[in-house]
């Protein structure tokens, strides 16, 4: 699939400056005026290249996904769709984690012109359907996985939701025995994410088997 997303040299400078400012400003407080100041120009010079923040966010999201996910590969006939999907969803998560508030940026961006994300979604559908999954089940699997990944990344990048400090912040934690037991099981963010990822993929596998059974019964 040909890539139609190609920012100009000046647009790339603005995108990179915006991404550098994230660590200092955060996504909510990032403004085109701040970016202009960082680049040593007046705000109208930025508006010439990006008419508003929403358009800039689209390009920032594309930059993050494209540069950090790399050239993802199609599923080979020898690879299960489950392994392919777990591997590539993990790449997607790592791409967003590579920048402060990366999850919020990509989640707020439009699928188009975010070409790389659109290509990834299309390739995911191809991989699932070529393994025998119907489009309705594939849609449910992908919507669930992408939303789960967005939620996990956004929570991981929010300090107030850090699970490492959660036990000290739970009011009267002694009365919440089940919650505390679950928290104290520990596990890194990577481990917890992959556990949830596998649960969703397992559900997709079961749904796929169920669909096949229904088709056989109808015959």
TrEMBL record:
Keywords: DNA-binding, Repressor, Transcription, Transcription regulation
DNA-binding region residue numbers: 31-50
Domain HTH tetR-type span(s) in chain numbering: 8-68
Pfam families assigned: TetR_C_1, TetR_N
Protein name: TetR family transcriptional regulator
Organism: Paenibacillus pabuli
């Amino acid at each position: 699939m040909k890539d139609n997303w190609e920012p100009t040299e000046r647009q790339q400078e603005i995108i990179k400056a915006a991404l550098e400012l994230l660590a200092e400003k955060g996504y909510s407080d990032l403004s085109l005026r701040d970016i202009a100041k960082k680049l040593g120009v007046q705000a109208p010079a930025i508006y010439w290249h990006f008419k508003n923040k929403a358009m800039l966010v689209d390009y920032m999201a594309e930059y993050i996904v494209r540069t950090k996910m790399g050239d993802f590969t199609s599923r080979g006939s020898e690879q299960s769709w489950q392994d392919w999907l777990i591997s590539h969803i993990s790449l997607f998560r790592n791409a967003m984690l590579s920048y402060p508030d990366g999850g919020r940026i990509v989640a707020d961006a439009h699928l188009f012109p975010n070409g790389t994300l659109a290509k990834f979604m299309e390739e995911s559908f191809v991989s699932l359907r070529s393994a025998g999954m119907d489009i309705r089940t594939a849609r449910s699997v992908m919507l669930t996985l992408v939303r789960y990944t967005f939620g996990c990344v956004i929570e991981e990048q929010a300090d107030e939701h850090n699970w490492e400090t959660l036990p000290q912040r739970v009011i009267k934690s002694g009365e919440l025995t089940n919650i505390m037991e679950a928290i104290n099981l520990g596990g890194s963010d990577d481990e917890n994410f992959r556990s949830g990822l596998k649960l969703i993929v397992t559900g997709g596998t079961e749904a796929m088997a169920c669909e096949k059974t229904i088709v056989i019964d109808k015959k």
